[in-house]
Amino acid sequence: MPETTPPEPDFHFDGQDAFEALSAALADAVLIVDAGGAVRYVGPGLVDVLGLDPDEALGRPFLDLVHPDDAVQHEGRPFWAAPPPFEREVRMRNGRGGWAWVRVQSSRIRPDGAVPEAVARVVGDGTLLFLRDRFEGTVRDASDLIQRAFDAVNNLVVVADARLPDTPLVVVNQNFLETTGYERHEVVGQNCRFLQTRADGTRDDDDDGQAEALDKVRTAVGRGGSTDVVLRNYRKDGTLFYNRLYISPVRDAAGEVTHFVGVQNDVTGEVEQAEAAGVHRGLLASFFDSAPFLMGVVELVDGGLQLRAANTAAVGLFQSEGATFDTFEGRALTEVGFTEEEAGIWFDHVREAAASVGPVHFDTTFPWGSDPEGKGVRALAVVVNRADGREPLFSYVAEDVTEIRRTSRERRLLAAAIESAAESILVTDATLDAPGPHILYANAAHRRIFGYDLDEVIGQSPRMFQGPATDRAVLDRIRRRLKAGEPVQAETVNYRQDGTPFVLEWEIAPVRDEGGQIVQWVGTQRDVTERRNLEREILEVASNEQERIAQDLHDGLGQVLTGATFKLQTLQNALRRGGNDALAADAERAQEMIEQALGQARAVARGLFPIDVESDGLEAALRRLAEDASEAFGVDCRFVSVGSAQVEPRERAGHLYRIAQEALANAARHGRASAVTITLAHEDGAGVTLTVEDDGVGIADGALERGGGLGMRTMAYRARRVGGALDVRALDDGGTAVSVRLESAPPGPSAA
């Protein structure tokens, strides 16, 4: 059977002659493989690469030319079907009947990843391949490797040609371009000085060490030597970065400098960190010199201590001992005023610090060795530690704690006094709303009165001491005063731990911070149960006796006098009928005198027991009190009623009447008043207020501070008995105002 040759491939395109001429000029063999893997075109370079005539490959499947054991024979799809660029090494048949290693590469692609249009027109749906001798590729690879390594270096690397005018850049690596933001064509051919151009176009070459660094570069280049400097450089976008530049010359065989290699590092972070550290050191130095503490460094040398540094406070202390040196560095402690004994104390503690892993604390006094309790002696608390963790340098800080310790002693004394006080003292936080306020402290007297241990009350609210008989009206008044930030005094029933009720009197005052804000409440408390019981018994006895006398006057003497007036009227009528007009006139005058006596007896009875003696209520009693006072004292006394409501129960009304009676008598007898106004004001749902105002000489401040005499204390007691508080104050225009405010609900059992 005659041997057949593959048919001539039908592969023609415009410019084919030019393409064939170009492929013939290449050292690589050029092949075009169609989509089915057949070789459609072979350039003449195949002879040089494999020793094969192009006709031997033309029209054959490409894999027929590849060694049957190579990996490309067994891949799922032909490697040339992969998107370019790609590169493979395979063994192919050569002209000597053997196999030769070749490198197969695709054509280049555009930056956008597309195949150039010219290539696409030539190969159509085929693939353009380049075959290269493996050894030649290795040499080229070495060159490529050097270039890739040059570009991969983290440093900014440039090469400048010393043989050309102005020493322009001829090579720059990729990191240089990425760091500066320039394109390669923008920097090659330029001198490196363009990197000192600011965003506004001006050159940065004159201040903060820049000029000196540039001079150093110019000197090195002029002499053909090496140098390293830090420069302020600017990226293409104008942003500043700091560049540490190392310049080295490159010489030819004759020793002449042909190029300079510049290796640059972006040290912006280092420079900024160094600047920040400088600022930090400046701040530390400022603190060191301005600190109120004595601070410094000593060195352990030759069995003694020498000063290495001292701040202003320490120098001032040394100078107060007579030291007059210009510098204290290197001076022994005894040279700057330390006694031998004091220097030995410091030396011992420094040695202790040298042997320990932490700071050493000790106390001393100044003047050195003085009695700590002596007048004008300063107490110093000293801390010694290794300076920066190294020997033989040791830092010291000495704080003047004289005032701190004096204050601490005073606080301890105050705390002891409060703890041992006979009266109960309670401290709470400033929270008024439930579940507050919270108890922060209770002294021993509080624990003794209430029966609770300290850990049982800390963190609790004083509400825990209230119960059914605690007066809600008193609690509401206290809350209003505390809400207003005012001190308050009050009393009501509290309960001990065993449930026993007792009458507690307390005063609460705010504790404020430096800004005037209330941060705590402090209360002083007293068990006044026995005193109140005694006062109540005395007043009840007196009240009962007054009521008895009033009843006797009203029912006894009043009835007798009333009967006498009737008898005299009868006698008067009989005498007139008998024509004895003179005796009838005497009987009439006697009747008038008895009627006056009867009126006075009734007035006395009303004064002794005004409420329910005649059952017309508190308002009527106060109105009659004003009328009687006008007659008895000769003053203009008026009663004013605002609103309308009955004051119940009888005891409450009786106490208010007695308060008004006492206040009116004080105004007339002691205040020398010419006018007095009694006001009873009823407020819907808000209670009642009794006020007695006069225009007299007023009450002295000293009397108010002392709590007044017996009359004022009696009025205050009566006010507390009805759940109110007595308020006595001097009026701006002269005179005195006495007032009592009662809540709408009368005192009695109430929920806490």
UniProtKB/TrEMBL annotation:
Record SMART domains: HATPase_c (SM00387), PAC (SM00086), PAS (SM00091)
- Which residues are in the Histidine kinase domain? 548-746
Q: Does the keyword Flavoprotein apply?
A: yes
The UniProt record lists the PAS domain at 15-70, 142-191, 410-485
- Report domain PAC positions: 227-279, 486-540
Residues of the signal sequence?
A: none
Which InterPro entries does the record cross-reference, listed alphabetically? HATPase_C_sf, HATPase_dom, His_kinase_dom, PAC, PAS, PAS-assoc_C, PAS-like_dom_sf, PAS_fold_3
- Quote the Gene3D superfamilies the UniProt record gives: 1.20.5.1930, Histidine kinase-like ATPase, C-terminal domain (3.30.565.10), PAS domain (3.30.450.20)
Is Lipid biosynthesis among this UniProt entry's keywords? Answer: no
PROSITE patterns listed in its UniProt record: HIS_KIN, PAC, PAS
Keywords attached to this Swiss-Prot or TrEMBL record, sorted alphabetically, are:
Chromophore, Flavoprotein, FMN
Please give one Pfam family short name.
Answer: PAS_3
User: What is the recorded name of this protein?
Assistant: PAS domain S-box protein
Q: Which species expresses this protein natively?
A: Rubrivirga litoralis
